[in-house]
Amino acid sequence: MNKGNDSGILLKAIYLIAVILIVRLFFLQVLSPQYKLRAKDNVLKKITIYPSRGLILDRHQNVMVYNEAVYDVLIQLNLTKNIDTALLASLLNSNIDFIRTKLAEIKVTTPNKPTPLFKLVDQITFSKFQEHLFQFPSISIQTRTVRHYPYNAGAAVFGYLSEVNPKDIENSGGYYEMGDYFGKTGLESYYDKYLRGEKGVTYALVDVKNTYKGKYKDGKEDKQPLAGYDIITGLDAELQAYGEKLMTGKVGSIVAIEPSTGQILAYVSSPTFDPNLLSGRYRQNNFNYLFRDDDKPLLNRPISAMYPPGSTFKVGAALVMLQQNTHPWNWSWFCPGGYRVGSHFLRCHGTHAIPDVQTALQHSCNSYFCKIYNDFVMDSTYATPEIGYQKWWDYMFDLGYGKLIGIDLFGEKKGNLPTTNYYNKIFGKGKWRAATTISNAIGQGEILSTPLQICNEMAMVANHGYYWEPRVAAYIIKDGKKYKVKQKKIIVGIAPEHFPLVIDGLEKVVEQGTGRIARIEGLTVCGKTGTAENPHGKDHSIFSGFAPKVNAKIAIAVFVENAGFGATYAAPIASLMMEKYINDSISKKRLFLEERMIKTHTIKPKIDTNYIKSKTYIDSLQRIKHKNDSIQKLKAKKDSTKTN
Amino acid sequence: MKADYKKNSGSIDTILLLCYIALVVIGVLSIFSATYNNEFQGTFFSLSHSYMKQVLWAGISFLMFFALIGMDRRIIQFFSYPAYILIMLLLFSVLFIGERTKGDQNWINLGFFKLQPSEFAKFATAMALAAFFDTNNMHFKTTKDYLTAFAIIAIPLGLVLLQGDAGSAIVFLSFIFVLNREGLPDGLIYFGLYVVFIGILSLVLDKFIIIAITIFVFGIFIYINLRNKAMVKFLAIIMFGTMIFSSSVSIIFNNVLLKHQRDRINIVLGKELTKEAERGIAFNLNQSKIAIGSGGIIGKGYLNGTQTRFNYVPETSTDFIFTAIGEEWGFLGSLVLIGLYVSLLTRLIFMAEQQRTAYGRVYIYSVAAIIFTHVAINIGMTIGIVPVIGIPLPFISYGGSSLLSFSFMIATCLKLDNEQRGIMR
Fold first, then answer.
1. Domains of chain B: which residue ranges?
2. By CA distance, what is B180's nearest residue in A?
3. Model ipTM value
4. Which residue from A186, A199, A319, A484 has the least number of CB within 10 angstroms?
């Protein structure tokens, strides 16, 4: 009955194809594990959760640096066709052209990924935008934090955050990723490891359009972020702000140290700027202006500006004299109005009889200190002046000149204390003597020091021969426990018994000497004025000192560039700072001084309009206003649709 | 009721029926998995979900089973030609009133249902072919017989091709298996395969290399058969034919085929693609392979296929539904599925051979050939060994026309077999 071929080729074909399919599936599903990984790659999106950076507090636990939420506006272009660029521009205070170019750029680069359109949008702008967010389904929001500084102070000491570059990523050992922010300068940089915390991560499932579909494994592999450690500094927020206020319109620095702990109480670099300028959406804009400013507000003057110490150097000179005992403390000298070295005459402030070293300090007599320097270096017990100078150099180095003091900030400069090699090179070995280097005696010439070094020396004097390495940070708070920041106690090679003599001299400076303007009633202030000769212009005004005389609470150094005598600017500012810190307020009698200091400017004030400040606080009144506005807008819309 | 049928006819073939039911159930489950998401619109049983629609079509198919089983086979046979003519008219009218989806003009919108006549044309052709072979004194030897049989197949093939539905057109080529069963020499099929083989080879290799290989291989054959003059002549014709054909393949490929068809072939051949194809079809196919490959041995589990459920693979409920099964049930699941198809097909062929009439044999055999072609092409394309051709996976892919059409085929086969059993008793 059946004709043709029995069951034909079809049956064979069925078996053949079935085998081919099964073999292929075996290769695909059993022998190719890479497909599993690729499927995982497809659907898993790693989302980084940024930890909040550690707070920075002052010694009284006032918050000086905290975090404020800002918002990155991200757009994913494949989710949308039409974007109301005009509305977007008006809501986000931008212009249409910028948005259009940015969108065109994203369309080419990453249309399938949420890509930042605006970064670090502040709260007020964002709250306005949020009400319209539903009109932009392709836009998502990433919350970030930026630093905020309620005292508007401490720009130099805290430093700023900046976006990482590939080298920073390498240095961080892979912790940072492109687009992250890290501490670039100041405390933020030095303690970045502690402040930054640990990033968290969450794995999300996404579909082909990259829209969120839920958590991967119900969040079992997610990691919560760990907040950064808070830092308690030794700073006094009020004093810091006050110092910056006093330095308005002047170039220079203030460093104040608590002698008993080595903690920095105030750290002013002037001209300064509101640290909030370098935080948030307009950071780059503001940075460019600050960078171009002739007065170099970004220079960290207390540790990286170097000045001749001037007469403040005489404090060290007096101590060395006593320790080495080249002269007794009551060695007297008649100052003929200067000191003659060959044909050169080093001028003093007048002719006067100096009965002892205290008086020499009190009147800041140049010739007295030239003489004792000369006698030290040219001492007949030394075979050559070079050996004498090396001995003197060793003392000065010990006191903190020409070396790093070791503060917890990057960028500290050594200053300059010329070595014997230096003079050998210039004059030739054996061809120089004390007279050749006589300007060293009074802190001029090649000697350069930083304000930190001068202040630290004062702290050492107040402590009668030792100092703690200065620290801005006092404690790091980890899991609620305070950990003290490591600090070394440095004992200098001056016997403690020599200090009372010098301190008495410093007291006389303020009571009856060159620093009388620094006197504070009811408080014994010890200090030394200085005037650093400046070959480029007007002399620098310097004052260093501490108060009170016994158990000093504050040691301070004030440098005001191109301001003349130490007594004119530096001394009053230093005394106001000391009074403010110890007495908490300025006595009525001295308020005029405060006003004068704030109002006299040595540099032209900068026009601030170039800077753009992000809006930060959103107070409740404003919030209510926003709400009412939007309700009214909605009503107006409804009405218009009704009439239509 | 079952006992009632037993009175006047034989029993229903349970193996075929169970295979069919299993496949339909797998289909509904897979459609649910591919389309279900956590944000549910409406209630679970709402007909707005495609899986519920599929359930509805399965129900309609079930009713159709009862209707057909109760019918006399002569009625089916009687209506073969009219049905064929009706469907051909429908196919023809689609060209004018049809609606376009994805470039193919193959739908007629009936409001509640989108009718796809090309699906029904498959079994209508099978019926017409069966009826033709059932005529008296048909020996399938004369040229006239050949031409008539080819015409029955060629008309729907041509009409479907005119709709732009190349995928369905290829399905009609499966009737070659039927003609082969009925006496068309094997050589013709082998020749066809040879042409396809040379065609693929010409696309992959340089034409001069192919000519060189052809001359070399045929040279050896000719040398061996040097004494057999007729054989030499035959081989020489094939050799020159091959050379001419292989040189003209690229012309045909570039001028006759459409761009997207060329792209789809290029993907399988592993050739360089245009950027557009790279982002479009190649991306889709790659995602399909990732989905199936990521299923592993035992699969990710039902409703856990991330690739298919998060839309990385397109058309997961229709043409690419196999990816959902491959991803969620793994290699073992795929094995079971292929096993079900193989048993269904072998059962059909077994049934065909049991038939006493040419009508039954040709019809059932045609059904087997159609289903086989669909399965081979559909699964083959999802795993990248066949160019992407938009035809459904029988019983499983979402689509009313397709499910109804395949169900009708199975139901009629069961009916023909059922009556056959009645006769044999």
1. 2-184+274-424, 191-256
2. A8
3. 0.92
4. A484
